[in-house]
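thought: fold this chain, then report.
action: predict
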Amino acid sequence: MSLPISLFGGGACALAALALALGAPGPAAAAEPATSAAHVNHGFLTGTWKRYRPKSFTINPQFTSSIPAPTEPPLKEPYLSQWRARQKAAHEADLRGQPIYSGYAACIPDGMPAMMMAMFPMDVLQTPGQITIIQEAYRQVRYIYLNQKQVPIADAEPEFWGHSVGHWVGDTLVVNTVGIRQEVRYSDVPHSDQMQIDERIRLISKDRAEDRITVTDPAYLTKPWNFTYEYEREPGYKMLEYVCEDNREYRDPKTGGQRVELIGESTSGNGTNAPATTGPDAPSRSAPADSHTH
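observation:
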């Protein structure tokens, strides 16, 4: 797919998040000075944003439910071959109507950089020394601290959204993020604790913005992985509550597929509603599920 998709929000389901734009620049130089012209309004990000979809945007009803990578990741071997095999298997499973169990079924939040794909609208709040991004999906909250030193990678506690610091270079917000949990995978792409995410966020018209993203990882990637997301303002949009609860989906321990525990089904052979499995792969009524509606 090669359509540009915007980051800041959407209001559709996760399957709608599959367009993309190419051509991000390389990572910002570490010594790049934080300059700011007096006429530049750095408050332009404040507000609610959604994905930008061109008029030509269409949704293929047969694409996989797994969010596709905006471009094929430049993975080293054997990781690239393994990734391609997993993508093919996931797509074929979806076409059979037997999706593979994923983080979305478990209602695990996207983390970075997938959060910036924004399958639902996003609020951006700008306050002194800080920019806060609130994603409607999974109620994700990301903090970007301005004009501060980045945490050394060796000291960065692994988190879903990592440690983000930024500064303004003219009209562009330059952000560096480190410390992403290794189980947080964007489009199922593996990464090491050395991964860094660099972003250049700027306004490209009065009500359009872009986020040029560069992912680097010396352990897994052969070169920087570049992609761009675009957004448009969504004035007047009221963020809705997105809570994950009472999930009945679980991973089939034999096939790895996604299964649903049906209310009233007898799985123990004694007429009770006990789940068929126990342990980490067993269904849990206390596990989260997507209760969001639009």
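thought: worth noting. The chain has two domains: 14-233, 246-294.
final: tokens above.
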